[in-house]
Each structure stands twice: as C-alpha cells, then as structure tokens.
Write a structure and sequence with these properties.
489 residues; eleven-stranded mixed sheet; UDP-N-acetylmuramoyl-L-alanine:D-glutamate ligase; 16 helices; Udp-n-acetylmuramoylalanyl-d-glutamate--2,6- Diaminopimelate Ligase, Chain: A, domain 1; six-stranded mixed sheet
Length: 489
C-alpha cells in the first residue's frame, strides 16, 4: 500500500485532480482485473484503448485513474492523474510501487532477432552454476532462483516484470537476465528499469508486420542501448553489420564479441561434431554440447557477459562446457533406426538458414535433410516466401505445413510460402496442412543417417487455431512416430 503522492514522486505528470494522499493498494492496466483500492492506468494499446474502460474501472473500485485525456465523468471519490504518455508512466509507477527492485539487482537485458532465449537462459544457468542467486525472464519460463514460473510473453508487461524482480530481491537474488523484445522496447514495457548491461545478438528480417519497415525495427532495437546508463555495459556482436549502429549513441561502456571479426572477446570453431563443438575462446580451448556457428556465437556472448558481470574466467569456462541446449532450441531426438530429428524454434529466415547449415556441417556423406516448416498466422507475411526459398534450396525435401495459423487459413499461409520456391525446386516440396501428419511423413521417409528438421515451434506445447490453443508438442509427435516405427519394423 502506498500513498498516491509518494508513488508520484520523481515521475512526470501533468496534473492531479482529487486527493493526492489517497491510499493505493494495487496497480492494474487491465480494467477486468480491478479490485477496490486499485490504480487503473489507461493504456492506448494496438487493439484497445484503456480510456474507454475508465468508467468500468471506477465502478469496480479504482481509487485512482491515470490517463492522457480526462474522462467526461469525474468521480469525487477518485483521484485522476493526467500524463502525456500512459505507457511510459506505467513502467515508472510499477517500479516505484515495488520499491525500484531493478536497482537492487544486476539486471542484464538481451535483445536481437535470434539468440535471445538461449543467451538469457545460459547466462542464468552460468550464474546459478557459479553459486550466485539469480533470476530469469524469458520466452520459455521465468525463474526466481530455482523456482520456475510459467512464461506469458517474451518480455511481460511492466507490472509483471517489477513484481518478478521484487520477488527476486526478496529471495536474495543478485542477478537477473531478461529477454528484451522489440515490441517491449516500443511499448515501453521496460520503462523505469535500471540495467547493469545490455547484449545485442544480431538483427534480421522479423516483426515487420508490427514495425512496418526494417529501418524502424533497427531504430527500436537501438533505443534500448540509447537509454542505458553510463555505469552499464553494452555488449554487441561485432559479426553483425549493425553492431556499431546499435551503440553509436549509448552512454554505456561498449564491449564487443565475434567469431569472424576483431573484437574484445574472440572465439572460433576448431572442430565440429554431431554432438558438439570444440571452440577457442580468448585463447583457451573448450568443448561445448552445442552445434552450429550461431550457438558458438551465443556461448561467446554468455562468456563475455559473464566476465563483464564479474565471473572468474576459468570457472565460467568450466560451467559453459557442461551446459546443454535450451528447451526447443536445436533439441535432438534420435530413433533406434538412426534417424536424427531436430526440433527448433527457428521462425525467421536467418534462424532457419543457420539451423539448416549447422545440420549440413555435421551430417555424413549421403545423409539427407527433410525439413518441416510453416509460418505463423497474423504475423509478418513478408518472411514467408523467404523462409520457403531458403528451406527448399538447402533441404533435400521440404514439407510445408501449418504452424500457429491463428485467425488465418493455413492454406493461404502455405500459398504465400510457395511463392518463394523457385520452379527448379518445386519437386522437392510437399504441402501437408495437418502438422502431425507432416511430421509423421517426414520421419517415415527418412532413412538411417538422415536428419529431420521440425522448425518453427520449438518449446511450444500448443497450436493456436481460430483463437483456440490446442495441445501440440512437436517433440511428443516425433517420439510417438519413432516409437510406432520401431514397433512395426
């Protein structure tokens, strides 16, 4: 519980109508969750405008309302705070309500098109391995030390973030690692947070349905680094051509990492094997249980960030060598007959190409690659033909199927993808709308030594169709098919 005038200290606002000393017991930006004593923050969202629900929030017990435009109906029992930007205010007031928890942690944000989940999760596992109390906020799950909580978004809303950070502080955490999506930056979900550091992994084609242009997508990502403090670090992947742009206006101390370029933290792949790689990191050899240059880059980022956060080099390398892939990221399932299935979250052109190349680099002579891929509905349509073009040209067989069609017709999505397949590669492509049947077909036509890549959903355990989520796990389907094949042969 906080007095309103205490919460407002240090937060920009235009005016307050009503009692500034009113007690606020809860914060909500969703009018459906209002309870007596709540402050309701009216946010202008992409689908709804919270200002339309102010009267509803007041009738359900809101004692304070934050808005950009005052409502026509002013209640004498409610305090109204007019602000220029409700979204920005939400992050600031959420931080204040929970006692500015991010300032009591070493909070590190990871942004980029690909590699955010792996980098954030492995950093969390590294510091837990070092015996440090740590938290994680990622696409797959949230952790408060070893307590696992279900994840709702890659980067949740400011109320959820600050509540989680508060729980981490209460549980004695020193560190927290959080994925920072472009949507979260643009919607100011990370507003009011104090970051000890930021990591840039890479940037490629994604989310252009939301950002409208690649330049806008770049600008939003850069904004994260623009707002870091001068006591923070900015660690960027020098192998990405946008690395310098990301940090050209940052106040943070800049460090770089790279596999191919000159950088503060250097790495290289010495040997590649089907079960891992031998790396050289800053002059020291290290075996890792990961495959692919993209994973080598992720591990290098984890090592570099660990060092910048105070980890001892030898201990960090020892723990990195014992880490295993993150759930749904290049997750390997092998059949008794010698078929290797790989389930991966790859849902962008760059990620799909990286995974396919990683498989090709460790597959034996004569091994075939059968790829199962689709694209999400109600999302960036521009990447659909690009992904299909890559997969058709780099796979021996491509099965186009349904992903999460959401409100779209799966046939229309597949048609968009087919538009990117060159005529010379059309005979490699099958279209099977039913995802389970597509996975079953891929596994059935694969022989000993072949690889089956099931891309797009990774860790997800559902398929969303016309607004309804149905249980669906690519890994379960693969194992089920492999078991049936074993029992019938």
């Amino acid at each position: 519980m906080h007095k309103l005038n205490t919460l407002l200290k240090g937060i920009d606002h235009e005016e307050v109508l009503g009692d500034p000393g009113i007690e606020v017991v809860n914060l909500e930006s969703d009018s459906r969750k209002i309870s007596p004593g709540s402050m309701f923050i009216a946010i202008r969202g992409t689908a709804n405008d919270g200002h339309e629900f102010i009267d509803s929030a007041v009738s359900d017990g809101a004692v304070a309302v934050v808005c950009e435009i005052l409502p026509d109906n002013i209640s004498n029992n409610v305090s109204y705070i007019r602000v220029r930007d409700s979204s920005r205010f939400l992050g600031m007031v959420a931080s204040a309500f929970w006692g500015h928890p991010s300032s009591k942690l070493k909070l590190t944000g990871i942004t980029g098109t690909n590699g955010k989940t792996t980098t954030a999760t492995l950093l969390y596992r590294l510091f837990r391995g070092l015996g440090r109390k740590s938290g994680l906020i990622s696409t797959i799950s949230y952790f408060v030390n070893d307590r696992k909580l279900p994840a709702t978004h890659t980067t949740p809303d400011p109320l959820t973030i600050n509540r989680l950070l508060y729980e981490m502080v209460q549980d004695g955490c020193e560190y927290c690692f959080i994925e920072v999506s472009s949507h979260a930056i643009d919607q100011q979900r990370i507003g009011g947070l104090s970051f000890a550091g930021g990591i840039f992994t890479n940037i490629s084609h994604d989310h252009l349905d939301y950002h409208k242009s690649y330049d806008e997508y770049l600008r939003v990502k850069k904004q994260f680094f623009d707002e870091l403090g001068n006591d923070a670090f900015a660690l960027v992947n020098k192998d990405d051509r946008n690395a310098d742009f990301m940090v050209q206006n940052t106040r943070a101390g800049v460090s770089t990492y790279a596999l191919k370029s000159m950088a503060d933290f250097r790495g290289s792949i010495i040997e590649r094997h089907p079960n891992g790689m031998l790396l050289n990191i800053n002059g020291r050899e290290l075996w890792i249980n990961f495959i692919g240059a993209f994973n080598a880059s992720n591990l290098l980022a984890v090592f570099a960030a660990g060092k910048l956060l105070g980890a001892e080099e030898g201990e960090a390398l020892r723990i990195l060598s014992a880490l295993t892939p993150v759930e749904g990221r290049f997750e390997t399932i092998r059949s008794p007959e010698g078929v290797t299935a790989i389930v991966d979250y790859a849902h962008t052109p760059d990620a799909l190409e990286n995974v396919i190349e990683a498989i090709r680099q460790v597959s034996g002579r004569g091994s075939r690659l059968i790829t199962v891929a689709g694209a999400g509905g109600d999302r960036d349509r521009g990447k659909r033909p690009v992904m299909a073009k890559i997969a058709s040209e780099k796979s021996d067989k491509l099965i186009l199927t349904s992903d999460n069609p959401r409100s779209e017709n799966p046939e229309s999505i597949i048609k968009d993808m087919l538009g990117g397949v060159d005529k010379a590669f059309r005979d490699r492509v099958l279209c099977i709308i039913n995802r389970k049947e597509a996975i079953r077909t891929a596994c059935m036509i694969a022989g000993p030594g072949d690889f089956v890549l099931v891309a797009g959903k990774g860790h997800e355990t559902y398929q969303e169709i016309i607004g309804v989520k149905h249980h669906f796990d690519d890994r379960e389907i693969v194992r089920e098919v492999f078991n049936v094949m074993q029992n019938t042969r």
